[in-house]
Specification:
- Belongs to the membrane fusion protein (MFP) (TC 8.A.1) family.
- GO terms for molecular function: efflux transmembrane transporter activity.
- Pfam families: Beta-barrel_RND_2 (PF25954), HH_CzcB (PF25893).
- Residues 131-179 form the CzcB-like alpha-helical hairpin domain.
- The protein has 373 residues and is α+β, with helices and mostly antiparallel strands.
- It contains three helices and 22 strands.
- Strand 16 and strand 17 (314-323) form a beta hairpin.
Length: 373
Amino acid sequence: MKKFIIAGIIPLLFACSAKNADEKKEKSEQLKEYKTELKDLKEKISKLESEVNKGSQKEIAINVNVEKLNTSKFEHFIQITGNVEADKNITIQPEASGNIISIDVKEGQYVKKGDIIAQLNFSKLQNDIDELKTQLALSKTLFDRQERLWNQKIGSEVEFLTAKSNLEAQRSRLNALESQKDLAIVRAPFDGIIDEIYQKKGEMAGPNSPLAQLVNINRVYVEGDVSETYLSAIKAGENADLDFPAINYKTTAPIYRTSNVIDPANRSFKVRVNLKNPGQIIKPNLISIIKIRDFVQNEALVVPSIIIKKDFEGNYIYIAEKQDKKMIAKKVYVSVSMTYNNLSMIESGLKLGDLIITEGFSQVVNGTIINIK
Protein backbone atom coordinates (compact mmCIF):
# COMPACT_ATOMS: atom_id res chain seq x y z
CA MET A 1 0.00 0.00 0.00
CA LYS A 2 2.84 2.39 0.89
CA LYS A 3 4.47 1.76 -2.47
CA PHE A 4 1.32 2.88 -4.27
CA ILE A 5 1.16 6.10 -2.21
CA ILE A 6 4.83 7.01 -2.90
CA ALA A 7 4.34 6.22 -6.59
CA GLY A 8 1.41 8.64 -6.63
CA ILE A 9 3.27 11.50 -4.87
CA ILE A 10 6.39 11.49 -7.09
CA PRO A 11 4.54 12.67 -10.25
CA LEU A 12 2.97 15.47 -8.21
CA LEU A 13 6.41 16.68 -7.03
CA PHE A 14 7.75 16.72 -10.58
CA ALA A 15 4.67 18.62 -11.71
CA CYS A 16 5.17 21.32 -9.00
CA SER A 17 8.87 21.67 -9.85
CA ALA A 18 8.10 22.11 -13.52
CA LYS A 19 5.43 24.68 -12.67
CA ASN A 20 7.90 26.76 -10.55
CA ALA A 21 10.45 26.69 -13.35
CA ASP A 22 7.85 27.88 -15.84
CA GLU A 23 6.81 30.73 -13.53
CA LYS A 24 10.43 31.85 -13.08
CA LYS A 25 11.02 31.80 -16.81
CA GLU A 26 7.83 33.75 -17.42
CA LYS A 27 8.85 36.47 -14.89
CA SER A 28 12.33 36.76 -16.46
CA GLU A 29 10.76 37.29 -19.88
CA GLN A 30 8.35 39.86 -18.42
CA LEU A 31 11.24 41.77 -16.77
CA LYS A 32 13.12 41.82 -20.06
CA GLU A 33 10.02 43.15 -21.79
CA TYR A 34 9.62 45.95 -19.20
CA LYS A 35 13.27 47.00 -19.61
CA THR A 36 12.77 47.21 -23.34
CA GLU A 37 9.67 49.34 -22.86
CA LEU A 38 11.57 51.65 -20.46
CA LYS A 39 14.34 52.14 -23.01
CA ASP A 40 11.79 52.98 -25.69
CA LEU A 41 10.06 55.38 -23.30
CA LYS A 42 13.30 57.25 -22.61
CA GLU A 43 13.94 57.61 -26.34
CA LYS A 44 10.41 58.92 -26.91
CA ILE A 45 10.81 61.45 -24.06
CA SER A 46 14.08 62.69 -25.53
CA LYS A 47 12.52 62.95 -28.98
CA LEU A 48 9.51 64.86 -27.65
CA GLU A 49 11.76 67.28 -25.76
CA SER A 50 13.63 68.05 -28.97
CA GLU A 51 10.39 68.51 -30.91
CA VAL A 52 9.01 70.82 -28.22
CA ASN A 53 12.17 72.90 -28.32
CA LYS A 54 12.12 73.12 -32.12
CA GLY A 55 8.42 73.88 -32.29
CA SER A 56 7.31 76.06 -29.40
CA GLN A 57 10.65 77.57 -28.55
CA LYS A 58 12.01 78.13 -31.98
CA GLU A 59 11.71 81.84 -31.80
CA ILE A 60 11.25 82.47 -28.07
CA ALA A 61 14.38 82.40 -25.89
CA ILE A 62 14.16 81.98 -22.13
CA ASN A 63 15.96 84.63 -20.09
CA VAL A 64 18.40 83.10 -17.61
CA ASN A 65 21.28 84.10 -15.38
CA VAL A 66 24.50 82.12 -15.37
CA GLU A 67 27.63 81.88 -13.25
CA LYS A 68 31.00 80.67 -14.41
CA LEU A 69 32.05 77.65 -12.39
CA ASN A 70 35.21 78.25 -10.36
CA THR A 71 36.78 76.46 -7.42
CA SER A 72 35.90 77.68 -3.95
CA LYS A 73 36.25 76.58 -0.35
CA PHE A 74 33.68 74.06 0.88
CA GLU A 75 33.15 73.34 4.56
CA HIS A 76 30.85 70.85 6.26
CA PHE A 77 29.80 71.18 9.90
CA ILE A 78 27.94 69.02 12.36
CA GLN A 79 25.66 70.50 14.99
CA ILE A 80 25.03 69.09 18.44
CA THR A 81 23.28 70.33 21.57
CA GLY A 82 25.50 71.01 24.58
CA ASN A 83 24.93 71.81 28.23
CA VAL A 84 26.83 74.40 30.27
CA GLU A 85 28.60 73.17 33.39
CA ALA A 86 30.91 74.76 35.96
CA ASP A 87 33.80 72.97 37.68
CA LYS A 88 33.36 75.22 40.72
CA ASN A 89 29.73 74.52 41.43
CA ILE A 90 29.29 72.62 44.68
CA THR A 91 26.82 71.90 47.44
CA ILE A 92 28.38 72.70 50.82
CA GLN A 93 27.74 70.18 53.61
CA PRO A 94 29.19 70.49 57.15
CA GLU A 95 31.73 67.86 58.11
CA ALA A 96 30.39 67.77 61.69
CA SER A 97 26.89 67.46 63.10
CA GLY A 98 25.26 70.09 65.27
CA ASN A 99 22.68 72.79 65.69
CA ILE A 100 23.15 75.83 63.43
CA ILE A 101 23.75 78.84 65.68
CA SER A 102 24.46 81.34 62.88
CA ILE A 103 24.40 81.69 59.11
CA ASP A 104 26.88 84.41 58.21
CA VAL A 105 26.10 84.91 54.50
CA LYS A 106 23.14 85.78 52.28
CA GLU A 107 22.03 84.42 48.92
CA GLY A 108 23.82 86.22 46.08
CA GLN A 109 26.70 87.31 48.36
CA TYR A 110 30.24 87.05 47.02
CA VAL A 111 32.61 85.24 49.40
CA LYS A 112 36.32 84.57 49.37
CA LYS A 113 38.08 81.32 50.16
CA GLY A 114 38.08 80.79 53.94
CA ASP A 115 35.16 83.12 54.71
CA ILE A 116 32.75 81.79 57.36
CA ILE A 117 29.45 80.62 55.89
CA ALA A 118 27.83 79.16 59.02
CA GLN A 119 28.66 78.03 62.56
CA LEU A 120 27.39 75.02 64.47
CA ASN A 121 26.88 74.77 68.23
CA PHE A 122 30.14 73.60 69.78
CA SER A 123 29.59 74.72 73.42
CA LYS A 124 29.90 71.16 74.76
CA LEU A 125 33.05 70.69 72.72
CA GLN A 126 34.44 73.96 74.09
CA ASN A 127 33.79 72.77 77.65
CA ASP A 128 35.71 69.57 76.89
CA ILE A 129 38.57 71.66 75.50
CA ASP A 130 38.69 73.93 78.55
CA GLU A 131 38.64 70.93 80.89
CA LEU A 132 41.39 69.22 78.95
CA LYS A 133 43.53 72.36 79.01
CA THR A 134 43.31 72.37 82.82
CA GLN A 135 44.33 68.71 82.92
CA LEU A 136 47.10 69.40 80.46
CA ALA A 137 48.50 72.16 82.65
CA LEU A 138 48.59 69.77 85.61
CA SER A 139 50.22 67.05 83.52
CA LYS A 140 52.84 69.53 82.33
CA THR A 141 53.66 70.50 85.93
CA LEU A 142 53.95 66.88 86.99
CA PHE A 143 56.11 66.04 84.02
CA ASP A 144 58.45 68.98 84.60
CA ARG A 145 58.88 67.96 88.24
CA GLN A 146 59.45 64.31 87.30
CA GLU A 147 61.94 65.34 84.64
CA ARG A 148 64.00 67.40 87.16
CA LEU A 149 64.06 64.44 89.56
CA TRP A 150 65.07 62.09 86.77
CA ASN A 151 67.91 64.41 85.76
CA GLN A 152 69.10 64.30 89.40
CA LYS A 153 69.01 60.47 89.29
CA ILE A 154 66.06 60.50 91.68
CA GLY A 155 62.98 58.35 91.09
CA SER A 156 62.36 55.49 88.72
CA GLU A 157 62.38 55.50 84.94
CA VAL A 158 58.81 54.15 84.91
CA GLU A 159 57.51 57.21 86.78
CA PHE A 160 59.29 59.53 84.33
CA LEU A 161 57.97 57.71 81.22
CA THR A 162 54.43 57.58 82.65
CA ALA A 163 54.40 61.33 83.24
CA LYS A 164 55.75 61.93 79.73
CA SER A 165 53.19 59.58 78.16
CA ASN A 166 50.28 61.27 79.96
CA LEU A 167 51.42 64.69 78.79
CA GLU A 168 51.73 63.61 75.14
CA ALA A 169 48.38 61.81 75.20
CA GLN A 170 46.58 64.87 76.54
CA ARG A 171 48.25 67.09 73.95
CA SER A 172 47.09 64.77 71.15
CA ARG A 173 43.57 64.71 72.54
CA LEU A 174 43.52 68.51 72.72
CA ASN A 175 44.61 68.77 69.09
CA ALA A 176 41.83 66.37 68.10
CA LEU A 177 39.22 68.41 69.94
CA GLU A 178 40.51 71.64 68.40
CA SER A 179 40.18 70.02 64.94
CA GLN A 180 36.60 69.02 65.74
CA LYS A 181 35.93 72.59 66.78
CA ASP A 182 37.22 73.81 63.40
CA LEU A 183 34.78 71.45 61.67
CA ALA A 184 31.92 73.20 63.44
CA ILE A 185 32.78 76.36 61.49
CA VAL A 186 31.75 76.01 57.83
CA ARG A 187 34.03 77.96 55.49
CA ALA A 188 34.05 78.67 51.76
CA PRO A 189 36.46 76.31 49.92
CA PHE A 190 36.96 78.79 47.04
CA ASP A 191 35.96 82.26 45.85
CA GLY A 192 32.41 82.39 44.56
CA ILE A 193 28.79 83.40 45.02
CA ILE A 194 26.35 81.87 47.49
CA ASP A 195 23.66 80.90 45.01
CA GLU A 196 21.24 79.30 47.45
CA ILE A 197 20.96 78.58 51.21
CA TYR A 198 19.06 75.40 52.05
CA GLN A 199 18.95 75.51 55.87
CA LYS A 200 18.02 78.00 58.56
CA LYS A 201 19.37 79.05 61.93
CA GLY A 202 18.33 76.59 64.63
CA GLU A 203 18.08 73.56 62.32
CA MET A 204 20.30 70.51 62.67
CA ALA A 205 23.13 70.27 60.16
CA GLY A 206 25.37 67.37 59.33
CA PRO A 207 27.45 65.64 56.65
CA ASN A 208 24.30 64.42 54.88
CA SER A 209 22.47 67.75 55.03
CA PRO A 210 23.08 70.28 52.20
CA LEU A 211 23.71 73.70 53.71
CA ALA A 212 24.32 76.02 50.76
CA GLN A 213 25.19 76.16 47.06
CA LEU A 214 28.48 77.87 46.17
CA VAL A 215 29.31 78.60 42.55
CA ASN A 216 32.06 80.36 40.62
CA ILE A 217 31.27 80.80 36.91
CA ASN A 218 34.24 82.90 35.84
CA ARG A 219 35.16 79.77 33.88
CA VAL A 220 32.61 77.32 32.52
CA TYR A 221 32.57 74.52 29.97
CA VAL A 222 30.09 73.17 27.44
CA GLU A 223 29.75 69.42 26.96
CA GLY A 224 27.79 67.55 24.28
CA ASP A 225 27.41 64.09 22.76
CA VAL A 226 28.66 63.39 19.22
CA SER A 227 27.83 60.31 17.16
CA GLU A 228 30.66 57.78 16.94
CA THR A 229 30.50 58.27 13.14
CA TYR A 230 32.55 61.46 13.56
CA LEU A 231 35.15 59.98 15.93
CA SER A 232 38.01 60.30 13.44
CA ALA A 233 36.93 63.73 12.17
CA ILE A 234 36.86 65.66 15.47
CA LYS A 235 40.11 66.36 17.34
CA ALA A 236 41.06 68.32 20.43
CA GLY A 237 42.38 71.79 19.59
CA GLU A 238 40.07 72.39 16.62
CA ASN A 239 37.75 75.38 16.86
CA ALA A 240 34.06 75.04 17.61
CA ASP A 241 31.36 77.68 17.16
CA LEU A 242 28.97 78.00 20.09
CA ASP A 243 25.57 79.67 20.04
CA PHE A 244 23.50 80.39 23.15
CA PRO A 245 20.03 81.25 21.77
CA ALA A 246 18.51 82.07 25.17
CA ILE A 247 20.93 84.96 25.74
CA ASN A 248 21.62 85.79 22.07
CA TYR A 249 25.35 85.22 22.47
CA LYS A 250 27.84 83.54 20.11
CA THR A 251 31.51 82.73 20.54
CA THR A 252 34.29 80.51 19.19
CA ALA A 253 36.65 78.39 21.30
CA PRO A 254 38.94 75.38 20.81
CA ILE A 255 37.80 71.89 21.72
CA TYR A 256 39.43 71.04 25.06
CA ARG A 257 39.08 67.27 24.86
CA THR A 258 37.12 64.37 23.43
CA SER A 259 36.26 61.39 25.59
CA ASN A 260 38.06 58.09 25.08
CA VAL A 261 34.98 55.96 25.73
CA ILE A 262 31.92 55.37 23.54
CA ASP A 263 28.61 55.44 25.39
CA PRO A 264 26.98 52.08 24.59
CA ALA A 265 23.49 53.47 25.21
CA ASN A 266 23.52 56.00 22.33
CA ARG A 267 26.80 55.16 20.50
CA SER A 268 28.28 58.60 21.10
CA PHE A 269 31.33 60.24 22.68
CA LYS A 270 31.58 63.48 24.67
CA VAL A 271 33.15 66.71 23.48
CA ARG A 272 34.15 69.43 25.96
CA VAL A 273 34.79 73.11 25.19
CA ASN A 274 36.19 75.37 27.94
CA LEU A 275 35.04 78.99 28.03
CA LYS A 276 36.05 82.15 29.86
CA ASN A 277 33.01 83.91 31.31
CA PRO A 278 34.16 87.31 32.58
CA GLY A 279 30.70 88.90 32.39
CA GLN A 280 29.15 85.77 33.94
CA ILE A 281 26.37 85.87 31.34
CA ILE A 282 26.72 82.13 30.66
CA LYS A 283 24.96 80.22 33.41
CA PRO A 284 25.25 76.53 34.39
CA ASN A 285 22.69 74.26 32.67
CA LEU A 286 22.20 76.75 29.82
CA ILE A 287 21.65 75.09 26.43
CA SER A 288 24.19 75.72 23.67
CA ILE A 289 24.30 74.78 19.98
CA ILE A 290 27.81 73.54 19.15
CA LYS A 291 28.92 73.65 15.51
CA ILE A 292 32.06 71.65 14.67
CA ARG A 293 33.72 71.43 11.26
CA ASP A 294 34.25 67.83 10.18
CA PHE A 295 35.26 68.41 6.53
CA VAL A 296 36.97 71.12 4.47
CA GLN A 297 38.23 71.31 0.88
CA ASN A 298 39.86 74.52 -0.25
CA GLU A 299 39.44 73.99 -4.00
CA ALA A 300 36.08 72.40 -4.68
CA LEU A 301 33.39 72.71 -7.34
CA VAL A 302 30.47 74.20 -5.41
CA VAL A 303 26.98 75.04 -6.71
CA PRO A 304 23.76 76.14 -4.99
CA SER A 305 21.79 73.08 -3.90
CA ILE A 306 18.54 74.58 -5.16
CA ILE A 307 19.56 74.31 -8.85
CA ILE A 308 20.14 70.56 -8.59
CA LYS A 309 17.21 68.51 -9.87
CA LYS A 310 16.59 64.78 -9.88
CA ASP A 311 14.96 62.26 -12.22
CA PHE A 312 15.02 58.48 -12.55
CA GLU A 313 18.62 58.59 -13.80
CA GLY A 314 20.03 60.74 -11.02
CA ASN A 315 20.91 64.35 -10.11
CA TYR A 316 21.30 66.90 -12.90
CA ILE A 317 21.69 70.62 -13.50
CA TYR A 318 21.46 72.86 -16.54
CA ILE A 319 24.44 74.62 -18.04
CA ALA A 320 24.56 77.15 -20.87
CA GLU A 321 26.28 75.96 -24.04
CA LYS A 322 26.71 77.48 -27.50
CA GLN A 323 25.25 75.44 -30.37
CA ASP A 324 24.76 76.60 -33.98
CA LYS A 325 25.44 80.21 -33.01
CA LYS A 326 22.75 80.03 -30.31
CA MET A 327 22.92 79.53 -26.56
CA ILE A 328 20.96 76.53 -25.35
CA ALA A 329 20.36 74.85 -22.00
CA LYS A 330 22.13 71.52 -21.67
CA LYS A 331 21.11 68.89 -19.17
CA VAL A 332 24.16 67.53 -17.32
CA TYR A 333 24.07 64.68 -14.80
CA VAL A 334 26.27 65.25 -11.77
CA SER A 335 27.49 63.34 -8.74
CA VAL A 336 27.00 65.24 -5.47
CA SER A 337 29.65 64.48 -2.85
CA MET A 338 28.39 66.53 0.12
CA THR A 339 25.80 69.18 0.93
CA TYR A 340 25.76 71.83 3.66
CA ASN A 341 24.05 75.18 4.20
CA ASN A 342 22.30 75.13 0.77
CA LEU A 343 25.58 74.47 -1.06
CA SER A 344 26.60 71.22 -2.75
CA MET A 345 30.08 69.98 -3.63
CA ILE A 346 30.14 68.34 -7.08
CA GLU A 347 32.33 65.26 -7.39
CA SER A 348 31.89 64.65 -11.12
CA GLY A 349 29.89 65.83 -14.13
CA LEU A 350 31.10 69.44 -14.26
CA LYS A 351 34.36 71.13 -15.17
CA LEU A 352 35.94 74.49 -14.52
CA GLY A 353 34.54 77.24 -16.72
CA ASP A 354 31.09 75.69 -17.22
CA LEU A 355 28.30 78.27 -17.29
CA ILE A 356 25.86 77.19 -14.58
CA ILE A 357 22.26 78.39 -14.99
CA THR A 358 21.40 79.85 -11.59
CA GLU A 359 18.16 81.69 -12.47
CA GLY A 360 15.52 80.45 -14.88
CA PHE A 361 16.63 76.83 -14.54
CA SER A 362 13.09 75.73 -13.73
CA GLN A 363 11.80 77.11 -17.05
CA VAL A 364 14.13 75.21 -19.37
CA VAL A 365 14.58 71.66 -20.58
CA ASN A 366 17.40 70.03 -22.48
CA GLY A 367 17.95 72.01 -25.71
CA THR A 368 15.92 75.10 -24.75
CA ILE A 369 17.13 78.27 -26.47
CA ILE A 370 18.20 80.75 -23.80
CA ASN A 371 19.12 84.37 -23.52
CA ILE A 372 21.73 85.24 -20.89
CA LYS A 373 20.75 88.40 -19.06
